[in-house]
Amino acid sequence: MRDVKWFTDARFGIFMHWGLYSIPAGVWKGKKMGRNWYSEWIRMQHNWPEPGGIPREEYDTLLDQFNPDKFNPNHWIKQFKEAGAKYFLITAKHHDGFALWPSKVSEYNVYDATPMKRDVLGELKEACDKHEIKMGFYYSHWLDWEHPGGGLPPWPSAENPNDPPMMQPSQKLYDEYWYGKCIPQVRELIENYDPKFFWFDSWNDKSEMFLTEKRLDDLIGAVRDASGHCLVNSRIGTTWSHPKGDSIVDYLSMGDNEFPDTQIPRPWETSGTFNNAWACHKLDYSWKSSETLLKSLVDNASRGGNFQLNIGPNADGSFSPAMIRRLKEIGGWLIVNGEAVYGTSSTSLKDPAWGRIVKRDLPDGNTRLYCHVYDWVPNKNIDIDDLSCEPVKASVLETGEPIEVSVDKKIVSMMLTEHCPDDRISVIVLDVIGKVPSYCEAFGDKMCEPHSTFNF
Ligand code: JFZ
């Protein structure tokens, strides 16, 4: 049986985009790339709107330059552990088709085609095991710009109808890619590294034409066949390309930096960025504050979801100082407030104006509520409406300072103290008698709880 509970309990993971595109980092021959900040797309954006992007031979000169002297897997994973992440996923292969492991399926990989000659994924896997971080892979299954049969960018698209059309491969050629590279590489990844999950990537534009029911069944079937526990996400294409829909995948992936404002009755995650870019981008200076990032984490937790914060290391394997500082700030906050995030669940309570609420069921049948206060105004009351459970006691999680609680009809009020514990998010622990239903318990949706999905 596939266990999804570890995933929902984890709440916080680190995503990573790293590959050949990390060398130009958004700039080619002194020119900033195309229309957005997705620097891993540089091969298909240079000199836009010229179709075809950077010619393959020119892009492949990056192979000789890929030799990161600051790649230190143990140090990388240790930093993620200290930031409070419970799992890690990396672009095993992105759209450019380049593999970060010594793949026997395709020589277009870090071991056979670059001077680095190391098994990046294998070394990271070892570090993850050492630091007890669960590991998974991003694998670009739909698009592959190396294999002659791989999918090309879906241009023109609904968003950009005037783009020059790309010559997509024939269905026959696509089968050669699908059954000759994609599925064999996915199997190889499972055999070599036993990942806990895959994060496949597609979106509803032109992907339906290649992501047919049969091809998706064969890919998901290959994962199920090779691993009893490996999880699969919805961006594999089930949402729009499979008659059974997302019931056959294990967790849902939101759009990039998409933070839903309602609860979602399935295990789910949002992948988000530190700035605008996934892979590192030389010209992207728009760093989000640790407060913003922590609120993304807590917002998602309060709706039953995870947050996967993305890191784009530099080509040499170093991290920018802006990332390092934010990782430490997040880790510091989680040292004291992790209890209010990991293993918690959403509640059926309405979002209060002052912040977010999550809960933990206690073994004695009572409930501990964690009140994440975003705006701490000294000596002001904050309320929880419609709470039928009687409050017992409340205190600040970080300091233990007692908080005065009162109740009037079904409104529970807590008096904020003079001293604000943390001007980003302060947590009050509130114990109440009886059970506060989770969103799923209150609304009785079968798909809600960590569950085992359809079996092939
Ligand atoms: C995809 C990739 O193309 C991108 O390079 C990055 O890896 C990101 C995490 O995922 O980008 C997407 C995927 C879906 C949409 C937009 C960009 N979408 O749903 O519109």
Structure description:
By secondary structure, this protein is of the alpha/beta class. α4 crosses α5 and α6 packs parallel to α7. The protein starts with a helix and ends in a 13-residue tail after the last helix. Strands 7-6-5-4-1-10-9-8 form an 8-stranded parallel beta sheet. Strands 11-12-18-14-15 form a 5-stranded antiparallel beta sheet. Strands 13-17-16 form a 3-stranded antiparallel beta sheet, with no helix packed on it. The longest helix is centred in the middle third of the chain and has 23 residues. The radius of gyration is 23 Å and the shape is globular. The chain has 2 domains: 336 residues, TIM Barrel; 83 residues, tricorn interacting facor f3 domain (Immunoglobulin-like), CATH 2.60.40.1730. Bound molecules: 4-nitrophenyl 6-deoxy-alpha-L-galactopyranoside (JFZ). 4-nitrophenyl 6-deoxy-alpha-L-galactopyranoside binds next to loops.
Quick gist of this model?
This protein has 456 residues and is α/β, with parallel strands linked by helices. Helix content is 25%, strand content 19%.
Average pLDDT confidence is 94
The CATH H-level homologous superfamily of the largest domain: Glycosidases
**First-residue to last-residue Cα separation:** 12 Å
| Strand line-up across the major sheet | 7-6-5-4-1-10-9-8
* Helix-strand category: alpha/beta
Order of helices and strands: HEEEHHHEHEHEHEHEEHEHEEEEEEEEH
